[in-house]
Design brief:
The protein is mostly beta strands and 279 residues long. It contains four helices and 14 strands.
């Protein structure tokens, strides 16, 4: 399901199911789509784009600003061309283009207090990241191209005083600014959603790798200890103060490009798996 360009139109329009712009299909399956494709703050919508099949058998949707395709081995390509989006380097406070896949999970799938493990696996390959900014204009505090992955941990108990509070549990992969992965966690406030983001140490998930080698890299981890650590960390910030683990669940995830800079970049993702093991 393809998003509009403006996320505010989703909130004002009554939710994604009422405001999505198109359905992108990569085979003849007519089932309801499981994924959303977010194209926030772009100039170019994939709406009404006619799919093509390239020489390798990949099904492709493409326009001036982005390209999305699925290969015969079910690897998803997300390519974004912000050299077409930006007329000048981004300034402080300006929105930036996104190209993200997102999914909501069934309500009874991932109640944190019921889990023994939450096993997550994914493979990611950076295809390219070309810096198109003029010399001297790149500011690492304002500009980059990166591929964050986030899970939403939310209090979903309507009887709880914390009902509706959420945090983002993040796993960073490629970031143009940082050629080496970090070995520490990170907590920061996301101004856009007014929620805390807790990022687990990337090396704990990916190992000692560099996505700049343009090879496939596989991450595999039990997310549950990191979720508990994230909850304990944000409780010091008065989030989830009245919550137990039985009040919390993982409600969904997203992955893809956020590009607050002038870059042409592409990434592939495959073998995405989240498996709940119950007590």
């Amino acid at each position: 399901m393809l998003s509009p360009l403006d996320p505010d139109s989703v909130r004002k329009g009554g939710g994604f199911a009422r405001t999505f712009r198109d359905t992108l299909r990569f085979d003849k399956n007519t089932a309801a789509p499981a994924w959303r494709l977010h194209q926030w703050h772009s100039k170019y919508s994939l709406e009404k784009t006619v799919p093509a099949t390239d020489a390798d058998g990949n099904v492709v949707y493409e326009n001036e600003g982005k390209k999305v395709s699925v290969s015969r081995d079910n690897a998803l390509l997300l390519e974004i061309k912000t050299s077409r989006e930006w007329d000048s380097p981004r300034g402080k406070g300006e929105h930036w283009p996104h190209l993200l896949i997102a999914q909501d999970f069934p309500k009874k799938f991932t109640v944190i207090g019921e889990l023994e493990k939450l096993l997550f696996t994914v493979e990611v390959k950076l295809e390219k990241c070309e810096n198109k900014m003029e010399e001297g204009t790149f500011n690492p505090r304002l500009h980059t191209a990166h591929t964050p992955l986030y899970f939403v941990v939310r209090n979903d108990n309507k009887q709880s005083a914390d009902y509706g509070q959420k945090i983002w549990l993040g796993i960073h992969s490629f970031d143009y600014r940082y050629p080496e992965l970090k070995h520490q966690d990170n907590l920061r406030k996301d101004k856009g959603t007014s929620s805390y983001m807790y990022n687990i140490p990337p090396k704990d998930f990916w190992g000692d790798v560099s996505f700049n080698d343009h090879q496939w890299h596989r991450g595999n981890v039990d997310l549950l200890p990191y979720i508990i650590q994230a909850v304990e960390t944000v409780q010091k910030k008065d989030i989830f103060k009245n919550s137990t683990l039985d009040d919390l669940r993982v409600t969904g995830m997203n992955f893809g490009w956020e590009v607050p800079g002038i870059f042409d970049a592409a990434v592939r993702i495959k073998n995405l798996s989240l498996r709940a093991v119950y007590k």
